[in-house]
């Protein structure tokens, strides 16, 4: 892969603003699940509100089957996602309050370190692995459009991958599909697991079995 593009953007502006609904505060966050947006709308409904162009993606952090904290809206072209504050300026997972006491979850948390960086480029969205351990990514635009099962891609420390391609995502849409018109389409979602993989080659078949993982939902408008 080409050199990571993270250095071309300043890191001082990677904070959510009041324009972004359900944003994580830049200092601290309350953990939990099943958050409701203002007016009783769920997070997914809020993301699909027409005319909302204030962010290009949102990030959700999960520990196994439980979402921790609120959605983090991303407006700047680059975002660091890391565990401890000295290791970046952006989405600090270590500030989220988690009730998960699993030893495996705690072990993986300690290995997230500098985490990853999301960068929106002209050709798509790149993920750079800043940590000392592999990350695992599943995206509809990384595989053959005719593939029935999406592969999970392993990205080693110090490497980057174009995790999302807007042109491919639009070409994969089914505009005449009634179900597609009524529900969010997973083609605009990328899943990223820290340290532990999942899928056909691993004992964990589903990402919800992974200790620590991210869900990145892209704004399709």
TrEMBL record:
InterPro entries: Dwarfin, SMAD-like_dom_sf, SMAD_dom_Dwarfin-type, SMAD_FHA_dom_sf. GO terms for biological process: adherens junction assembly; artery morphogenesis; beta-catenin destruction complex disassembly; cell differentiation; cellular response to leukemia inhibitory factor; negative regulation of activin receptor signaling pathway; negative regulation of BMP signaling pathway; negative regulation of chondrocyte proliferation. One of its GO terms (molecular function) is ubiquitin-like ligase-substrate adaptor activity. SMART domains: DWB. It comes from the Eukaryota. The keyword Transcription applies. Residues 56-221 form the MH2 domain. Transmembrane segments: none annotated. GO terms for cellular component: adherens junction; centrosome; ciliary basal body; cytosol; fibrillar center; heteromeric SMAD protein complex; nucleoplasm; plasma membrane. Keywords: Transcription, Transcription regulation. CDD domains: MH2_SMAD_7. This is SMAD family member 7.
């Amino acid at each position: 892969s080409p050199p990571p593009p993270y250095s071309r953007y300043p890191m001082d502006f990677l904070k959510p603003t009041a324009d972004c609904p359900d944003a994580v505060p830049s200092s601290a966050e309350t953990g939990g699940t099943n958050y409701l947006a203002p007016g009783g709308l769920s997070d997914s409904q809020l993301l699909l509100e027409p005319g909302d162009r204030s962010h290009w993606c949102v990030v959700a952090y999960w520990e196994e089957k439980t979402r921790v904290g609120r959605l983090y809206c991303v407006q700047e072209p680059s975002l660091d996602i890391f565990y401890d504050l000295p290791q970046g300026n952006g989405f600090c997972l270590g500030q989220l309050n988690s009730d998960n006491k699993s030893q495996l979850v705690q072990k993986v948390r300690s290995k997230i370190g500098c985490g990853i960086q999301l960068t929106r480029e002209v050709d798509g969205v790149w993920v750079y692995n800043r940590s000392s351990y592999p990350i695992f990514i599943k995206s509809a635009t990384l595989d053959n459009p005719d593939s029935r099962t999406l592969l999970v891609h392993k990205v080693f420390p110090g490497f980057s991958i174009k995790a999302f391609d807007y042109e491919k995502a639009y070409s994969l849409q089914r505009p005449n599909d009634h179900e597609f018109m009524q529900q969010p389409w997973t083609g605009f979602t990328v899943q990223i697991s820290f340290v532990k993989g999942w899928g056909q080659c691993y004992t964990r078949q589903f990402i919800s079995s992974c200790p620590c993982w991210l869900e990145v939902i892209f704004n399709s408008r």
